[in-house]
Amino acid sequence: MGAPSLEGRVAFISGASRGIGAGLAQRFSQRGLRLVLCSRTAPALACSESVLARSIDMRDEAGLSALVSEAAQRFGGIDLWVNNAGVLEPIEPIREVSIEAFREHLDINLTGVFIGSRCYANHLRRIGRGGVLINLSSGAAWKPYAGWGAYCAGKAGVERLTEVVALEEAGIGLRAHSVAPGVVDTAMQEAIRATPETKFPAVSRFLERKRRGDFNSVRYVADEFLAIAFDPARESAQVAIRLENESAGV
After folding, report:
1. Cross-strand partners of 48
2. Is residue 191 part of a domain?
3. 155-189: per-residue pLDDT in tens?
4. Contact criterion met (CB below 8 Å) for 63 and 96
5. How far apart are CA 146 and CA 140, in angstroms?
6. Quick check: is 122 in a domain?
7. Which of 99, 110, 112, 231 has the fewest CB atoms within 10 Å distance of its CB?
8. What are phi and psi of 175, to 5 degrees?
9. For the chain, what is the domain count?
10. Which H helix or E strand runs over 176?
11. What distance in Å separates the CA atoms of residue 127 and residue 201, rounded to the nearest whole number?
12. Catalytic residue status for 151
């Protein structure tokens, strides 16, 4: 896929203040896309001629709708929408997780994705054309981890929600994918490695991965997302996609 095919493309990224979201924004900008960014704190890239950035919580439907309206007036239609915002905590056995913490987690990781997906589907219907939706998934969507009850439940919900969106919106040309990016060494991974084994029994696996340096880079993840969205050779009817380890292609 060559860079010229991205000329004039517009991408939305949530959770764009740090981690994968900030890395996606940096790489998408390098590849020439115009960007619509939001996060609860200031996005990593400031507003410019090609970047519209706002501090918005993805659960704020009114704020998000206003941002999309502003983006439509400035850039036109959004070609790629990435629901990336999310949290990991609480990390502890379900018996110890408070109801309030569980509800808050799902409100961010699942309801936020629902609101974003709904907003994008309505945006595409207003402008009368299709687009690509990528919802961040995880291996935790299909593999249970002790201590990650909320995270596993939320990501499993994201997978099925995305399948429903793909089914409902296929007629307008929306391709929806839930994409597991693999393990990327972000602040979230640092939090995992700092968790005591009593709360997260699998922590030794993540410590060993850090020792080996066995991670996917954000640059690799960003380029894979762009390929999924815009490279005709990579277009797939499969909704759930799991990125290969970056080292596998070396």
Report:
1. 51
2. no
3. 999 999 999 999 999 999 999 999 999 999 999 99
4. no
5. 10
6. yes
7. 99
8. -100, 125
9. 1
10. strand 174-180
11. 48
12. yes
